[in-house]
Amino acid sequence: MKNLVEKIAYIAGAAVMAAGIFSLSCKVNKGSASVAFAETPAAQIPQDSLAVTQALQDSFRSITSQVLPAVVEVDVKETTKVKTFSPFKDLPFFFGLPRDEEEGDGTKELEQSALGSGVIVRRTGNTVYVLTNNHVVGNATSIKVKLNDEREFEGKLVGKDERMDIALVSFESSDKSITIAKLGDSNTIHQGDIVLALGSPLGYFASVTQGIVSATGRSGGQIGSISDFIQTDAAINQGNSGGPLVNIFGEVIGINTWIASNSGGSQGLGFSIPINNIKESINQFIDKGKITYGWVGISLVETTDEYKEQLGIDKKQQGALASQVFLDGPAYKGGILPGDFIIGLNGHDIKSVDQLIREIGGIPAGKTTTIKVLRGKATKEISVKIDERNEEVSANDTKLWPGFVASPLTSDLRKRLNIEKEKVEGIVVARVFEKSPAAALRLQEGDIICAVNDKKVSSLEEFYAALDTNSKKEIWYDVYSNGHVVTTARYKIGK
To answer: Do domains 294-395 and 398-492 have the same CATH topology?
Structure first.
């Protein structure tokens, strides 16, 4: 609201200023006005600077005329269910007729319209394919595609993917002159590169904005980790979603997807999916109607310096912690254990959880990959055969071992758990997964595991070593909770 007030104040101030100028002009007669203008000569622009500016402008014109015919507006309709309320629900039913139990409070269907953008990326015969975002068309009951020349076509959803937030729409046309966008190489872009964003922001059809690449390799945060993002200050607003980000050669290098904003409008923080992350997905949509991902069956967590210290790892070491494994999953079968710190994949370094998720997801099912891990002080290279990600399998917590996220018992956690004066040592149960082995053992968030199989543990390194997952023996814990230490039931791995 503050931003809106400031904006209104700015517009109002501008209006007042304009009124003042106009009033002043009214007071100046024709002669004095001509003298005033005569005394203000036009700025002299050096010819070499003018030539450079003209060349830049010509470049933007060329890019726009080249790409804009391949940019479309996507008009969708969605049907959503909304709750309804009957003010007569609690009144007596007249005439003795039976009351329908489903009347009164319930739901009804509501049709909503929305606009987004897209870019034409391929043609096969009379079928034309448009790339856009999943959040634009993923739930659409009808899709209309509007070309730059304002012709409209009925669109059909070919495939969608929520994890990457992309979708492919097709329409039929025998017009062979329809422009197909050229896809560039997003791996070649650098900070400072000039880019243009095209689309229909706020419904303003066929708009173009210009900026630079502010950063590459940005994380999606809550948006998702299956893709990194190109950050740009080119103005991107609602309605730009699904439209292209292009370089100075008129090549698509990204698909505009989301913005970071306090106001809901552009604040120079726009994010686009790199086109190289999408190219193979286009083929998969056309061939199979969906995207398939590689899967190894591990649950990953980001590690802080305190985590690394507890694991006995140098604070400067980059990587991703495999905090849990899926029993009978590819990683478990290959020999990866909870507590392994993954530092390499197929001969190159792994620097973050997001990077590992993206790279594993891009490996075809059935291919064997080499994963390099730190286990305690030892470095190991483990061969794992990639499986295809199955949402039901990956969501099956019963196979997730040990079934909870372990955290260091820091001074801050001691304070939050109100055990500052206690001499208890161990690791903290930070999150328990439903129906997992940890849930079966009735572990709860905030519990402190002091021992595994009667062996005391005071660090993450000691805890993961004591789990001894390969032995397939029974595991039990000594748990400190509410001022008491209790011993859990026993759980047999692989039972």
So the answer is: yes
3-state class (DSSP) for residue 214: strand
Backbone torsions φ then ψ of 173, nearest 5 degrees: -160, 135
Q: Check whether the bond before 364 is cis (ω within 30° of 0).
A: no
Q: Which of 135, 200, 272, 354 is catalytic?
A: 135
To the query of whether residue 165 is one of the catalytic residues in this protein, the response is: yes
Q: Is residue 455 within 8 Å of residue 428, measured between CB atoms?
A: no
Question: pLDDT higher for 169 or 262?
Answer: 169
Q: Which of 207, 225, 241, 436 is catalytic?
A: 241
| Catalytic status, residue 241 | yes
The predicted-structure confidence for 425-471, as pLDDT tens digits, reads as follows 999 999 999 999 999 999 999 999 999 999 999 999 999 999 876 66
If one looks up domain 182-288 in CATH, what number appears? 2.40.10.10
What are the pLDDT digits (tens) for 12-57?
A: 333 333 333 333 333 333 343 444 445 566 667 777 778 888 998 9
Q: Identify the architecture of domain 398-492 in CATH.
A: Roll (2.30)
Q: Which among 161, 165, 447, 478 is annotated as catalytic?
A: 165
Whole-prediction pTM: 0.79
Percent of the chain with pLDDT over 90: 70
200 is catalytic: no
Q: Domain segments of the chain: what residues?
A: 182-288, 294-395, 398-492
Nearest to 60 by CA among 278, 162, 211: 211
- Any idea which fold 294-395 has? Pdz3 Domain (2.30.42)
Q: For residue 70, which amino acid is it?
A: A
